């Protein structure tokens, strides 16, 4: 069986039958494209001819920089997290093949992910949030952009959730959003007064005047659904203009939402529910952020800790 053919079958399956999220499909598509390209360079066209050593060689290829004859880098080495993601993608793909074609051997069965270094999330402080929100002007584009930022920070939305938010998921009078997250899991998220006001301002002043081609909340001047790229670029430009930490991104608002709630005394389980995390261990990363900050404050201000630091 041609590797390219079974890849297409698998991608069709996760889209039409398994109904994976758009971002998940795009991620798997990208990983499998790299996998197929590598196997083709090794003259491997048939999926039956892939064995354990081929997969190991592919992963080793990803771990290194590669250059052409002119010394130009044609492939930058992948991070441990990216390698782990690739291994997961290959496991899911070959598991599908094993179920569909029971006689087919699974070459990734004994390949395991390695524990990656856990990086604590970068988040905004309150002063930066206020500066950012105060920087928006009263033009149509910036009224929409401000509403987006208010939802990302005020409701802890993922960028993809913000893009896919529909009018029927907004309950302005009650001050709630019905968010559909990963795996089509629904959750109700409250909106605070300023968040609600920014969204209402956009809906009445901007969206109402645009020719909407769909029920998406956020649409561009052509009436089309905004993209994740639009939000990422918009946020990066604004952060750059304000001279804020270059490590911050659109996703940092979600980190800030969680961290600021925990700082205010919110229960971890409540934060888990608001974020839409299936596993509380995913939410616990924010307690590590708190602990690191507490350690920093303690070291800086406790007289005995300061003395020890100076010694």
From TrEMBL:
GO molecular function: DNA binding; tyrosine-based site-specific recombinase activity
Main subcellular localisation: cytoplasm
Alphabetized Gene3D superfamilies for the sequence: 1.10.150.130, Intergrase catalytic core (1.10.443.10)
UniProt GO BP: cell division; chromosome segregation; DNA transposition
Pfam families: Phage_int_SAM_1 (PF02899), Phage_integrase (PF00589)
Protein location: Cytoplasm
Catalytic machinery residues: 158, 182, 251, 254, 277, 286
Functional note: Site-specific tyrosine recombinase, which acts by catalyzing the cutting and rejoining of the recombining DNA molecules. The XerC-XerD complex is essential to convert dimers of the bacterial chromosome into monomers to permit their segregation at cell division. It also contributes to the segregational stability of plasmids.
Keywords tagged on the record: Cell cycle, Cell division, Chromosome partition, Cytoplasm, DNA integration, DNA recombination, DNA-binding
Lineage: Bacteria, Bacillati, Bacillota, Erysipelotrichia, Erysipelotrichales
Domain Tyr recombinase: 119-299
Any one cellular-component term (Gene Ontology): cytoplasm
Organism: Amedibacillus dolichus DSM 3991
Alphabetized PANTHER family for the sequence: INTEGRASE_RECOMBINASE PROTEIN MJ0367-RELATED, PHAGE INTEGRASE-RELATED
Keyword field contains Cell cycle: yes
Gene field: xerC
Name used for this protein in its record: Tyrosine recombinase XerC
